[in-house]
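1st attempt posting a full record on here, be nice pls
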Amino acid sequence: MEILKVSNLKKYYGCNNNITKALNNISFTVSDNEFLAIMGSSGSGKTTLLNTIATIDTVTSGNIIINGVDITNLNEEELSNFRKDKLGFVFQDFNLLDTLTIRENIALSLIINKEDKNKIDKLVDDISRKLGIEEILEKYPYEVSGGQKQRCASARALINNPKLILADEPTGALDSKNARILLETFKEMNEKLKATILMVTHDAYSASYAGRVLFIKDGKIFNELVKGEKSRKDFYDEIIEVLTLLGGDLNKC
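the predicted structure (as tokens):
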């Protein structure tokens, strides 16, 4: 089953003779329970692509269908409701509120929607147990590690059982140890919790945790790799080979 279908997507900036083609006729699909990484150098269009799928930015032409709904046809109120109900987000800088406990941060969207407290507690306890952070629920973000913060952010993204989780350079603010912990969490979310994940990254190590990688160059799909039965090490080596062909400064976010 297709959770995401992107068809002939174009996003242009500017006007007259000064037009930048950020996205130039991109098409691809993401299946249910897939973990897809999108890679590209700075200015390739990968962040623009994520923003259009996240309903943060609009498209010039083309269609984005998520769980059977063409979001390019929705108005602002409909987009807001769709974003709230169907999408989960994991950000590079966590976006946690230091004045709220870990429990409250995870439950924030449910609290805003005035869900029943018993239901909220049950959902938070369940997802926290699955992600191994049940012991820090009453602590505040400044009292826990970077890896625990990202697990909190992942729990918050999963709490509404979204159809699609979007991650924008999620390891960018983490050291190597916490980056590995987060990526293992993503793998667990994908394999055990059946989460569908689309992750934008410039980092080959991060991308090697995905089951498939799309490479973007100059607003177009340059190449695609599928992990299949390969080891993560072998998949990483393949990714590096494509990045060498792709060129550009891939150390920039």
